[in-house]
Structure formats: structure tokens, C-alpha cells
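[User] Once you have settled down, look closely at the record that follows, and write a paragraph about the fold.
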Amino acid sequence: MNGKPIWRQAVESVDERVSRQVEDVVNSENFAIAVGLLLRARREVGAGVSQVTTGLLHAVNLPAKRDFDRVLRQLASLEREVLNLSDEGTKATAGRPRATRATKARAGRPGGSREPRST
């Protein structure tokens, strides 16, 4: 006895017999052609289903996947624009002193931004 459980011996025995045959099939040209044909058929069926689904959803005035995709692209574009504007604003205000609440309040009073009187 080699110390391996019986189930493991059975699995290895089947694996040894089957794996060579499976490898021969998978590595054959016919298998590659069959997989290619199946992938193409799947893509074409999927495109047809997508068109039908989109048509049905639009017929009842509901958005389809491509509508969501378009909105997501627009949102991403807006986010990029906001980030660019934020970066430009940060660069433009760099080096300027930051306004505090007190300076903003003084700027709103008649007389402008005078310094407060000391007592």
C-alpha cells in the first residue's frame, strides 16, 4: 500500500487514462476550429439578442445598456473637466493668502477691508 487514500488512487488512475486523450483532442486543429465557430456564433446571437432587447426597452420608453454606457461616458467626461478646473483653480490661487471668515466679513462691510479698531 502506498499510503494514499482509495479515492485519491481512483482519481489518479482515471486522470492518467483520460488526460492524454483530452490533451490530444484539445490540441487538435479541429478543436480550435470548433471553438472559433462556437465563439463567433455566440457573439452573433448575443448581438441579435442585444438589438432585440434594446428595441423592446426603447419601445416602452426604458433605457437600454448602451444608454447607460453613454451616460457613464458623459459623467466620466464631466468628472475630468471638474478635476481639471479644480486643478486650474488651485494653481491660480497658489501663493495668495487664504481668506478667513473675519476678512470675508470685513470685506462685505462699508469701508472695505479695514483692520478692526483696537481697544
Summary: The chain has a mean pLDDT of 87. The radius of gyration is 35 Å.
